[in-house]
Amino acid sequence: MSLKWRIALGYSLLLIVAISAMSGIIAWRFQQILEDQAEATVNATMRAIVQFAQQSSTPFSLEDSPMGALQFLFNSTNLATWNSATSFVQVDSSDGYPLAKTENLGSLTIPPNFGVSPVHDVNFRHIELGGRPFLVEDRYILEGTNAAVIHVAEPIDTLERTFTSAREAILIVLAIIVAAVIVLSIVLASQATTPIDALARRMRGISSDRLALAAASGTLGEPADLRNRHDEIGRLAHSFDDLLARLGEAIARERQFISDASHELKTPLTSINANAQMLLRWGDDDPAIRHESLETIARESADLAAMVNGMLTLAKADRGDEIPMEPVSLAQISSEAVQNAAGRAAEKQIELRFSHDGTPTVNGDPHLLRQMVGNLVDNALKFTERGYVAVRVGALGDKAWVEVSDSGRGIPDEELPNIFARFYRADKARSRAVPGTGLGLAIVRSIARVHGGDAVAGRAPGGGALFRVTLPRMAIPFTGLS
Ligand code: ADP
To answer: What is the distance in A from the centroid of ligand 1 to the CA of 307?
Structure first.
């Protein structure tokens, strides 16, 4: 069932139950008031009879000869007192035999009520007499052998008619209100859900081709009335726009990556292909050409392999949730990365320093973290001609950090914002002489971020480059490094 119908049904049911309960209570109270009035009338008559019976000077004492007294009360003269149009009175003996009754009862007899007792003074009941409904009060008077029961009956057909028509009126009003409530609920629910439907239709209508376009513009092109609303629907439309904008950025990033990657792969592939052609044509005749071509092919294919490896590492870091994490000593893996680079540093006669201030533990993948520090050390060695490369590890509060600085040429300030971008190589002319893929720093930042940290670049005190990676520190101390 759609949300619209559920809201409409919920509203309607709630209101119908509430209104029905209210009408029921009103009808019940109304009936009670009418009945109380009828009972009061009957009871007043009853009390008047009893009073009259007790006060009238009859030839018969009520105590000594109750039957005589009653027959006197209801004889032809006194009967007239009670012979009103509405009050019907009958006196029975205690065993239910009618002794006397008012004339308006005619041939009708009020049936006895054997349940009546002297203890329960007031007894009302409903009976049907000659096809009319009556309210009857029975009263047991005079105890002893001559006990008798007085019945006072009042026709209540007018009262019942009043109640029936009141109930009909209430039912008609109730039906009108229920119909109005249902219609109103549907209208309200439609008003609430139609814009959601419109938004959903619009989203469904966007094909995958147009999705990239919509994402780039950051809007689905919802009608202005959706976007300009200041309610939940408006916020929903804006949230979709935000989502699209982020999606757009992601799509653009992916496209850029694919185009950059193809471009970067194309250069070594073209060179390999050209050298292979040369080999085929002149390789057998000219050993110099053969040697040069094979050398180029070997170098370019190594570059290709490095680039593909870099892309695989990036892809792995991008799928961060699949990386198995364990407690790792940042000092230990940094020291290992430094050891791995010792040979290259010695070749270039560059001093390689390592120091650590504490042994902070981080939660991470040791291979990726080692590669992260290794990339920074490799770069520092690559872009430094003389002097030193220093790696320092430390901790501050809940953060662990590793810093790689060098005495090389440094990074110009205007390049700093870009150097972490994929395939970016600062100062193309100069870096052409230095081998590289332009992925190293992108990998550093990806690995840092997938571990909940980040990487920044700056200038070392001597003018060289300085890279600093900050990672969240784990509470447990790591004792692997003495
Ligand atoms: P690659 O080193 O393969 O070119 P990176 O992503 O590792 O790619 O580095 C991007 C660019 O940042 C490099 O081309 C270089 O211009 C600059 N760079 C990186 N590290 C240093 C450094 N230590 N000193 C000077 N420049 C650096």
So the answer is: 14
